[in-house]
Amino acid sequence: MLHETPGLLDAIRARFAHVESCPFQGPRIFFENAGGALTLKSVVDTSARFAAIPDNQGRDNMASHALVDIINRAKADLAVFMNASSGQFFVGESGTELLFRMIRTACVNAPKGAKVIGSSIEHPASRSAARRWAGIAGLDYVSVPHDDATGLVTAADYAARMSPDVAVATILHASPVTGMGMDVAAIARAIRSVSPDCFIIVDGIQHAAHGQLDIDGYGVDGYAISPYKVFSRHGYGVAWISDRLTALPHDQLIDAPAAGWEFGTRDTGAYATMSDVVDYFDWLGGQVSDATDRRARIEAAGRAIHSYETHLTNVMINGTGNLHGLRDMDHVTILAGAENPAREGLVSIVVRDMPSAEAVSRLNAQGIRTHTRKDDHYSGNVLRPLGMPDCIRVSLCHYNTEHEVTQFLAAMQDMKRKRCI
């Protein structure tokens, strides 16, 4: 485990900017990773370097050729990172925008009268796109309800509502509200067993920072991530699409190459920062394994991240030493249950008789950064069935420490005493 290797956690934290302090607030513990992870220092340096370069791709000069090489390297790095042996990668405005584009293309090319299937656990990025473009394309939208108690939707849930005329499907890989990860490969198999040619598009935005990406193992056609949630920066999204989704008629310039999905001149620096992210996972895998193959090192990093984040959330839920965990605090309710093996580095809670915004404010005053999720267009699909107007999202990443978790637990226990005054 990461914290069991002497010096490794310190080495990890040293690679990220603003680990222990906010440039505006000062010292703080960062438990808002689901809203945007910390940024690698190498990404900061790369962004600054490429922001100063005036040249564009596609010109006959040395700088332009170098930029094309950097983009090609980044795409190759992404293929190793996400284990994609076919298809293509491209960047866009954001992960949300890319989901809309992929889903729109699949819907408008579907046969009239076909169906689109998705689940009620999904973030509105995919759910809104699927419902909107199903309506425009004259398709029926089928909603698969998730289990409120576990925060999950399963392959069996999809299978119960599948039919051969489903042409487009959307899957959420991990929920930014419950923190639960879905079994994408199993869901995709359930879909294809009934509708083999269905176009399947996955929202991987919340899952990506926790490692363990495997496009070849999923059997899907589209996958989107938001780099600012996986140690890069804001301002762009990354999508992978299969060869058959690539080939569908899609928005593009007249007479442009048929396989092109990007619009205008892209930011080479955006691509280059993804190489920084992949290099980081490669480095981490080398610290936790003896693997010599790059993909094997990345897989080892993903396993180590998952194991350590599970350890941190277990400490948060169950406590440590004489310090009570959240499950033993009678003023705290844990969304999706205390015992949930699908959890990916995130615990959402409610404090009895206290608005979540107030609890988040109290934590922030103690230098602990969390976030409120409300019954709104982002999170109402999860909170409303539970009868909760809001919750506190505490999201961890592998650079967080057990000491930070214990400080949070002490603050939560102290909140009970202050609430009773």
UniProtKB/TrEMBL annotation:
Q: Which domain of life is it from?
A: Bacteria
Keyword Lyase listed: yes
Annotated InterPro entries:
Aminotrans_V_dom, PyrdxlP-dep_Trfase, PyrdxlP-dep_Trfase_major, PyrdxlP-dep_Trfase_small
Record key words, sorted: Lyase, Pyridoxal phosphate
Q: Identify the Pfam families for this entry.
A: Aminotran_5 (PF00266)
Residue ranges of every copy of the Aminotransferase class V domain listed in the record? 29-408
Annotated GO MF terms = lyase activity
What PANTHER family has UniProt attached to this entry? CYSTEINE DESULFURASE (PTHR43586)
**What's the protein here called?**
Selenocysteine lyase/Cysteine desulfurase
